[in-house]
Structures are given as C-alpha cells and as structure tokens.
C-alpha cells in the first residue's frame, strides 16, 4: 500500500505521538520514513523572539542544531523499530508548502502528521499547517489527534 511515509515534526508532544504512530504504520506496511523539520529562514525584521538578538550565522547554527535534535526522535524510533529512515531540514516561511514540496520531491506516498488543534480566533487568524496541507496536498495525508 504505502511505501514511503513523510513525517513532519515540530518537536511538540503532538508531533512525537504522530511520529510514533507513523513509524509503527511504516513497520507494519514494510515502508520507509522520512523525517522533516521546517525552519524559518533568518529575517532582520521578525515576529520570532529567537531571531531578534541573533546574528544570521548564530541563528543558522542554532536552528540547525535544534532541527537535528528534533529529527533525532524520528531517527531513533525508526532504528529501534527496524524501519529505514532518512531526515531532512528545509528552510521556509511557508511550512505547509515545504511539507508538500518535500513529499513530492522525495516521492512520498503518504504524509502522516499531527493535528495541533488551534481553536477559536487563533485558528481563524493563524490557520493550521495541518489544515493547509490537507487542503493543498495531492499526496494522501493521515492526521493523528
């Protein structure tokens, strides 16, 4: 059925649960997985507090270290379960576009990701990356709650 599953993660508890389920599914299907972490590129003017005081070089280094730490969760779990795994860090302001593009470029046939459950005004104003992936992806999407 599915042979290559993309597992986007932001390092949250919800993402970790989706990773566990996604790796278990991959094991059951004999599929491989690709872990993905999307990092926003450095901007001089930003709403993100972690960029305000950093230099571009410092931000790049620290965000890469954080991404590798987040992706290590995917890699370790896949190794423990005997599931082939690779991982990728993508720099983009548009998380949903990066997820969809990575699935296409790496020929994934399923995206398995967490639902982050924004509610109320925040969901209306910010939207949900998961919802955007569901809306725009041509690759099937499995959402874990």
From TrEMBL:
Domain UspA: 1-145
Superkingdom of origin organism: Bacteria
Ranges in coiled-coil conformation: none
CDD domains reported in the protein's UniProt record: USP-like (cd00293)
Matches recorded under Pfam families: Usp
Subcellular localization: Cytoplasm
InterPro entries per record: Rossmann-like_a/b/a_fold, Universal_stress_UspA, UspA
Keywords: Cytoplasm
Keyword Cytoplasm carried by entry: yes
PANTHER family with a match to the protein in the record: STRESS RESPONSE PROTEIN NHAX (PTHR46268), UNIVERSAL STRESS PROTEIN HP_0031 (PTHR46268:SF15)
Family classification: Belongs to the universal stress protein A family.
Name of the protein in its database record: Universal stress protein
Protein species of origin: Massilia soli
Lineage: Bacteria, Pseudomonadati, Pseudomonadota, Betaproteobacteria, Burkholderiales
